[in-house]
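hey can u run this one w/ iron/sulfur cluster bound, need the C-alpha cells asap thx
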Amino acid sequence: MIRIDIYQGNSHGLCHILPVSSQKKTDNQKILKGGTMDTIILTPESNDHFAGMVEEMSRSNLSRCWHCLCCSGGCPFAQDMDMLPNRVIRMVQLGMKHRVLSCSTIWLCVGCNTCSMECPNAVDMAAVMDALRRIAIQEKVKIAEPAVLSFHQKVIDSISRYGRTHKLEIMMRYKLSEKDFFSDMDLGLKMLSKRKLDLMPSKVKDRQQVQDLFTLAKELS
Ligand code: SF4
Ligand code: SF4
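ok here u go:
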C-alpha cells in the first residue's frame, strides 16, 4: 500500500509518496490552518480513464492544480466535508474513482463557485464537483448524502413544473419523502408569517419552453 502526503500551507503543494499500513485520519481544520500533511492512502483501485472523464465533463485541466489550498480555504462547507476539495482533485488525478464518487464532499458542495473564483490556475472546482455528482448518479454509486440528492430532485421537479421554484412545495415534498415532519417547523412558520414563502406557485408564461429544455437536457445526457 502507498501513502501520498500533500504538504498544505504553501503554494508548491509538495508531495511525498511513502509505503504505509494504515489510514491517517484527515483533520480538515488542522490542514486549513496550514503546515499539516494531508495523507492519501492509495488503494489497489486505479482507474486510468477517470481523470480524463472528469476533465472533459468539467472542462478543467486538473493537472494544473498545485494544491495551494485556496479552494479549500475559501469553501464555506469545508469543515463539514469528509475530504477537502483539493484532496478530491488529487484523488481524481490518482484514479481513485470509487473513493471519490462515494464521498460526502461532492454532495455537501452547494456550487457557490467561491473555489472556482479563487483558483490561481483556473481549475473550475464547482464544475468538477458537478461532474462527479453526475458520474455518481450515472454509475449508480451509493450516494453518501441521499437527502441532499432528494432535495436537488425536488428543486428540479419544481422548475420543470412551473419554470420557477415554489419553495413551500419543495420543502413539503422534501419533508414528506424524508418522513421528517416537525424539524424546521418553527422556521417555516416564521418565514410564512414574514411572507418569505408563497402559498401558491408562481409560473412562467411559456412552460412548454421549459419542458423542451428538460427534454433536450435528457437527450444530451
Ligand atoms: S484547485 Fe486551484 S485553488 Fe484548489 S488547490 Fe488546486 S490550484 Fe489551488
Ligand atoms: S462550489 Fe462547492 S467546493 Fe467550491 S467553495 Fe462552493 S461549496 Fe465549496
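The CA atoms of residues 101 and 140 lie 10 Å apart. anyway lmk if its weird
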